[in-house]
User: Fold Peptidyl-tRNA hydrolase from Candidatus Woesebacteria bacterium GW2011_GWA2_40_7.
Amino acid sequence: MKLVIGLGNPGAEYINTRHNVGFMVADAFNTKIRSTKSEFRNKSQIQIFKSQNFMNESGSFVKDITIRYSALGTDQYWHVKIGVDNRPLDDKPMGIEYVLQNFTDEERVILDRVIREVASKLDNI
Assistant:
């Protein structure tokens, strides 16, 4: 059994924000494993979750899921982190303001490539 837990904020207003990169990766991975090109052979052994708690409250969701699936027989987990901070040093909006902003078009081009790469790597874990 493999668990993939994407973190982010629930709600349409947050879909393209920096805080929702975890959701974006979970969605991309879900699309990938459902495709015929996926190398993950036993798709029924994958559970993909997207926290419905807000990002700053996601710890309890992750804890609940890992307890629920304690039958995995391990307390060792991969953590995938994607950096979203490329603010110029001289113009840094406050953290909360920044992470709730949508990505710029230029950032989105880079992000889409990173998301595809991460989803591809998850396919091999």
User: Anything to note?
Assistant: The longest strand covers residues 2-6. DSSP finds four helices and two strands in the chain.
